Amino acid sequence: MLEPSNNNELPVIPEKRYFTIGEVSELCGVKPHVLRYWEQEFTELSPVKRRGNRRYYQRHDVLMIRQIRSLLYEQGYTIGGARAYLVRDDAKDDLNRVKELIHQMVGELEDILELLK
Length: 117
Fold this sequence. Notes:
Blueprint: H1 4-7, E1 19-20, H2 21-28, H3 32-41, E2 48-50, E3 54-57, H4 59-74, H5 79-116
Antiparallel strand pairs: 1-3, 2-3
């Protein structure tokens, strides 16, 4: 996610369930039209849309926006590079979950083998 040094310049995310585009704009230091553009470019970013097509972002969306902002503005990634980075990061998380699941299954199979002996 964001480097600790970059977190200091952005406000703390309040404990709320939903945020308007204006609130997210202030929390992330990005203008609303940029947020709408990023929704088109990053499939991971998908706020809830309600009556009148109003966007409501959740906490995980705000964190994702801060990560995208960091990649683009502070680390120098292009849109395509940031998109690839996020996909690769998700793939690493998935791989770690799979490894953990396999390790757990091996342990359970060893326990079953001990019971059968």
